[in-house]
Write a structure and sequence with these properties.
The chain has eight helices and eight strands. By secondary structure, it is an alpha/beta fold. The protein has one domain: Rossmann fold. β7, α7 and β8 form a beta-alpha-beta unit. α2 packs across α3. It is globular.
Length: about 240
């Protein structure tokens, strides 16, 4: 069980995976929560109550190396076939989960109906401390090095962040709703989400941004997620 909803845990390509089932009649749509399945679940529960299946696969590295993202794409296709649902699903990403969701949408846009990003990591140079603003944690470096084979001297040339490849999002008309905290010193909005926001506005994309005044990196989500639900339901392609 997951938050009082029936769930199934299984292995997919040597990774742990979960499908959570709605109590009502399924609506043929899926919500992929890319990271931190149990964290801030109000939106997820609301979507389950609307008939969405909630799906999740645990990544071996949360910083979205290509091999993990492509396995995630295969997982989405597998779940769609098993559940008789659309492969085009809602991609929900919080923090590093936002990094995963954005790269998945850029590499496999046919799987993305709507992007819901919450304090998303979109610029790995920023997270590695090159922006000079974020509160860098030592553990970040070890994980980034493991994901991409970089080090502090080679990272300066790194160009594999979501902000380096935003064109597919616009070309495929993928709507985005994005939350951020104005006092977030871990994932600094000006170096991450703001770049995506500006790109969408300059290129006629559909985007809604919600800033939380004086909020830090946590908590994610909103006390009332209805505005997020409404955006997703309105713009689901």
């Amino acid at each position: 069980m997951w938050n009082d909803f029936e769930s199934k845990e299984f292995r997919f390509k040597e990774r742990d995976a979960v499908i959570v089932y709605p109590k009502c009649k399924p609506n043929g749509r899926m919500l992929l929560k890319t990271e931190y399945l149990g964290a801030f679940p109000d939106f997820d529960i609301a979507m389950l109550e609307k008939g969405y299946h909630l799906i999740h696969i645990y990544q071996r590295n949360r910083w979205a190396p290509v091999v993990e993202i492509d396995i995630m794409a295969d997982f989405v296709r597998y779940c769609a076939k098993e559940l008789g649902a659309s492969e085009r699903c809602v991609l929900e990403g919080m923090s590093c989960g936002g990094l995963q969701a954005a790269i998945l949408a850029e590499r496999h846009p046919e799987l993305a109906a709507v992007l819901y990003l919450d304090a998303p990591v979109l610029n790995l140079l920023s997270m590695a401390g090159f922006g000079g603003k974020n509160k860098v944690l030592d553990t970040f470096w070890h994980e980034i090095e493991d994901a991409y084979g970089v080090n502090p001297s080679t990272m300066v040339n790194f160009r594999q962040s979501p902000i380096d490849n935003m064109k597919p999002l616009i070309e495929n008309n993928i709507p985005v709703i994005m939350l951020y905290g104005s006092a977030d010193d871990v994932v600094v909005y000006g170096e991450n989400g703001r770049v995506l926001e500006n790109y969408y506005k300059e290129n006629g994309g559909t985007i809604c941004t919600i800033g939380k005044s004086m909020s830090g990196h946590h908590p994610h989500g909103l006390s009332d997620p209805q505005i997020i639900i409404d955006f997703v339901e309105k713009h689901y392609r």
